[in-house]
Design goal:
By secondary structure, this protein is mostly helical. It has one domain. Helices cover 92% and strands 0% of the residues. The protein is rod-shaped. It starts with a helix and ends with a helix.
Length: 156
């Protein structure tokens, strides 16, 4: 065989191989490559979307944390103010109660002083009567001299 015929037959076989490859082998490979490229692109898009969502979620979390910190600080300040108000109110009530107790003690002391004076007046009157008995050497009738004794008590 001649080299030209061999070269010609090889060219025809090569053309048939190229045609067969392009018709039956290449489309599934191209489809698989396209599908893989699409999956990679979708994965990258999903990763970018997830990254942006993560960044958005982090911002929302930071905002909520700042909001809760502010709210906590506000509540603590309110609680502290309320505690101070309660303390002041308790101090005021305690002072008021103390003043009432002191006033009641003064009233009671005044009453006891008045009672003690009355008792002393009666004792002085009795002593005066006994002294008068001793001076007069006779018994003085307290019933008869009640008005005199009453006047004596008031003078004392």
């Amino acid at each position: 065989m001649s080299i030209n015929a061999t070269l010609f037959v090889q060219a025809i076989v090569f053309a048939i191989l190229v045609w067969f490859t392009m018709k039956f082998v290449w489309p599934p490979i191209a489809a698989a490559l396209d599908e893989r490229a699409k999956k990679v692109a979708d994965g990258l898009a999903a990763a970018d979307k997830a990254k942006s969502e993560l960044s958005s979620a982090n911002k929302r979390v930071e905002e909520e944390l700042a909001k809760s910190r502010n709210e906590t600080a506000t509540r603590l300040a309110d609680a502290e103010r309320r505690a101070q108000a309660i303390i002041e109110e308790a101090k005021g009530k305690a002072t008021e109660e103390g003043n009432k107790i002191v006033a009641a003690a003064r009233v009671e002391a005044d009453q006891q002083t008045v009672k003690a004076r009355e008792v002393l007046r009666e004792q002085v009157a009795v002593l005066a009567v006994k002294g008068a008995e001793q001076i007069l050497r006779k018994e003085v009738n307290a019933g008869v001299h009640a008005e005199l004794l009453a006047r004596l008590k008031t003078e004392l």
